[in-house]
Design a protein that fits this description.
Chain B: Keywords: Glycosyltransferase, Membrane, Transferase, Transmembrane, Transmembrane helix. The complex is a heterodimer of chains A (about 180) and B (about 450). Chain A contains four helices and three strands; from the N terminus they run ααβββαα. Chain A has about 180 residues and is mainly alpha-helical. The longest helix of chain A is centred in the last third of the chain and has 66 residues. The relative contact order of chain B is 0.13. Classes of the chains: A mainly alpha (about 180), B alpha/beta (about 450).
Chain lengths: ~180, ~450
Amino acid sequence: MSTVALNRPARVAGRAASVLVALALIALAATLLALQEQFRDVEARVAAFLMDPFVHGGTAPAGSIVWFGLGTQQVTGFQITTLCSTVILVTPLLAAAGLMLLVRPLALGRVLVGLAVGAGIVTLCNLLRYGFAAIAMQTWGSDGFELVHRYLGSLLVIAGFIAAVILLLRFATMRSTPQRGRHS
Amino acid sequence: MTASESLQALAFVMLVIFLSYVCMILVPFLRRKRDEDGDPAAFAWHVFVPCRDEEAVIEDTLDRLVTDFPLAHVWIVDDHSTDATAELVSMRASADARIHLVRRRLPEARQGKGAALNAAYRALNGWLPADADRDHTVIVVVDADGQLAPNALHQAAGPRAFGDPTTGAAQAAVWMSNRNDDRPIPGARGLRQWWGHYLVRMQDIEFRTTIAAMQCLRGHTLSVGLGGNGQFTRLATLDAIAGAADTPWHGSLLEDYELGIHVMLAGFRNVYLHDTHVAQEALPFTGKLLTQRTRWCQGGMQCTKYLSQIFFSRNFTNAGAIEAAYFMLMPFLQLAGTVLWPLVFLISAAQGAIAPGGLETWLATTAWVVPLMLLTGVLPFALWALIYWKRDERRGSILTALGWAVGYWLYMYQSYVVVIRAFVRLVLGRNGWSKTKRIAEYAPQSAAPAAAPQLEVVR
């Protein structure tokens, strides 16, 4: 039996696995969009938990609202809206990874690593934005909140999203070794 | 998620994809190192110059080519000119064995630039001896007004270009020959002249920074695009394409980019030569510029027919396939943007109008978006003009640079007009184009020859 004959079924199986994962990623992206309300509730719980050590007073989630400053004179809550949610950042990465796996025989492991890194970066950036906004609110009042939420926070999220897209592409396409016609 | 939120989210994602692309082209462009020269004597060089009604420029072009490139043969393809182009070239050819005239006549002539180049390819095949070393023969395509830099063959023979046997084609950087001409429109005055000068400068910025940066990225993804001027191809590569697809050049309106795709599909590399260039006339007329860009855009849209071949090709790198797909889909994304961006704005304004406090409150509460818009919607365009001023054409003060930066940002809006026109033409199946006139032909004192019906373009 030739090497080619041995490798071919493995290649076909690998490609089939990639296609299945690609479809799963696209389905996951669609599911996240469909269940974004529930996702925002979870996000509020995570944000409240992570912000707790860094803000004055206690924190508590209520639906998609994160309350902070509990037990102090100033209790504030901010709502995680759809457009502020990490869903908006993670969904395109999932869809992009899925589409790339569908159209090209990319190394599945590398795409998943790139996706994990990218999703991690945008999630971290968005959580940092929530945290910084809360701290700014307690330190400088609503002006501080506006500055961090709208300017610095937006820039942080945009920069993180750009980094995530570039890293996803970088991981997904690295070490590609094309055959070069008669010269290969 | 509401429809409004969906549109805003989509607009945000498209913006980030665009900004990511800008970062991806900017970094390799700023970090690139100069390419080494090679020995042009290691190759045979044949320059193809497709012409139609080029009597205004062809003699100067011939002079330049035979003087600057004594190793090269020059093949002028006359595509049934109605002026004296063929006669002028014929006289020169009879006196210089390195000049060749390929005459095409109707009804075969005027089938597009690709057909003209294919005719030159056949003529060259008939002229070359059977034992010619086709691996070491390079075809150079230059427009009739093209001015190839004197180091072009040295760069093309370099170790990263044809010195590497896997290289099938190369594209030189493109500069605008009339970029420093203060009066680019013959006979025009005042505002019209100023506007023409502005358009010329913007085209030079575009080619020498933004497009050059795209090509630098493609150098890494191995998906460099070929242009119609300053295009180099190894003869053996053209043979391989002709063997698989009948002819080297094909019928898309962007036949040069199409050739680049064929080169890569055939398993060869395209490389970008930033350290040499070809200079061509920039268009100082708004209408002509929009027409030229619409043709290019429509040609790019036509090339999407290669997407499935690119995706399934083992000869494209993964990064190259994704880059090529993005490039081909860019006009469609831009088309979506022409609807999406105004829609997002209108919806936001409408929501503001019906909210408590009305439009005034909405304007006050959304003013924070303006600095972000400057940063994400203006700077990604304006920065190219600043780079150009710093690295390529340091003229005037920083105010000149800032003026160019604002001008370049505004200039980029032409692409929205272009993409809509190209899409409409694509849908209507309109593929015919008039030849772009040379600027010299607009001189008030010149008597323009009677124009025959022109169906296809030869730039």
